[in-house]
Design goal:
Helix content: 40-55%
Shape: globular
Radius of gyration: 18 Å
Number of helices: 10
CATH topology of the largest domain: Rossmann fold
Number of domains: 2
Oligomer: single chain
Largest sheet: 5 strands, parallel
Distance between the termini: 42 Å
Structural class: alpha/beta
Length: about 230
């Protein structure tokens, strides 16, 4: 079923152990700064976050946020890549040069995924794909909370599952995945491998299936976490 534009979507929650973030009474100070130029999407995100007893500050442009954020407030910046005027990528780069203390979660459309991957390589904490799902957004904010407050999160089971999934990939699929994680588009991967874009898309579909990824953002996050653990 097609999802309506201008809203974030909801799906059934999986049963997971409750964390400090999940308990609003135990949760430490943590605000969510949302920069999104689509008013309907921004309002929907704000509503969903406030339902979880989170303080939300929302902005239509990157410059509005940049001018407003003057004192360090614990939280996370949820930032759309494509914005009028200063883009999300440009704001991220500007904040990085100023040692911005908050984790940044990028929001991207499908066509902007390579840009989002590059943003993560340049320090962005996470990214979400449009249409943004409520559970995905809350999980990203929860991960950002744990990161900001240096809360240990047991990743062993998730890393083992990722390793098992990676072992199911063929050598060609692993090659395509490496290029995806490097931030290349399907067209760029096709040029690198001297195959058609259609062939690359077919490989990517099989990769998502074998990796049990909900979407490309989930796939990239699994790979980033696995690579970070391998390098630790």
């Amino acid at each position: 079923m097609l999802q309506k534009r201008g809203r974030i979507t909801r799906r059934k929650k999986k049963t997971v152990p409750q964390t400090e973030f999940d308990n609003s009474k135990k949760r430490k100070e943590f605000a969510v700064f949302v920069v999104e130029d689509d008013q309907a999407i921004r309002a929907s995100m704000k509503e969903a976050l406030e339902e979880e007893k989170l303080v939300v500050h929302d902005y239509m442009t990157a410059m509005e946020f940049y001018r407003d954020y003057r004192e360090v407030v614990p939280g996370v910046l949820v930032l759309d890549i494509r914005l009028p005027g200063m883009t999300g990528i440009e704001l991220q780069e500007k904040l990085a040069s100023e040692d911005f203390p908050l984790p940044i979660v990028m929001i991207s459309g499908h066509a902007d995924v390579p840009m989002a991957v590059r943003a993560m390589k340049n320090g962005a904490f996470d990214f979400l794909c449009k249409p943004v799902r409520v559970d995905d957004m809350l999980q990203a904010v929860s991960r950002a909370y744990s990161s900001y407050y240096s809360i240990d999160v047991d990743m062993d089971e998730e890393l083992d599952e990722t390793e098992d999934s990676l072992n199911r990939l063929t050598s060609r699929e692993r090659e395509v995945l490496d290029h995806v994680v490097d931030g290349l588009s399907s067209r760029e991967i096709a040029e690198e491998l001297t195959v058609s874009t259609k062939t690359v898309e077919a490989h990517r579909a099989r990769i998502n299936d074998k990796m049990r990824a909900d979407n490309v953002a989930h796939l990239i996050r699994m790979c980033f976490n696995f690579n970070a653990a391998e390098e630790a």
